[in-house]
Amino acid sequence: MIAGFTGAIGGPLIIKPFRIRSEVGIGIGLGTGSHALGTAKALEYGEQSVSMSSVAMTVCAIVGSCIGPLVAWIMYP
Fold first, then answer.
1. How far is 20 from 47, CA to CA, in rounded Å?
2. Buried-most residue among 27, 40, 41, 71 (CB within 10 A)?
C-alpha cells in the first residue's frame, strides 16, 4: 500500500519536472512504480497510459515471479 499511495500521490510531482509528455512513458512509470493505484491515476492522462500501465504492471508481476525464486535459491542454497 505504501508503494501504491506514494506513487499515486508523488507520481505527478515527478512527471512534471522531468517533462514527461508521452502517454506511454507516463503509463509505464505509474504502472511499474505504484501498481493498481498507479493504473487508476493513469486514467487522468488518457486511455493509452492506462493500457500501458496495465501491461507494465503485468510484466513486472511475471518477471518478479520468475526472478524471486532464483534469487532465493542463489542466496539461500
1. 16
2. 27
Q: Rounded to two decimals, what is the model's pTM?
A: 0.86
**18 phi-psi bin (left φ>0, alpha ψ -120 to 50, beta other):** alpha
Cell of 39: 493504473
**What pLDDT, in 10s, does the model give residues 13-64?**
999 999 999 999 999 999 999 999 999 999 999 999 999 999 999 999 999 9
19: its cell numbers: 517533462
Closest C-alpha among 65, 62, 63, 56 to residue 34: 56
Spacing of C-alpha 64 from chain mean position: 13
SS3 59: helix
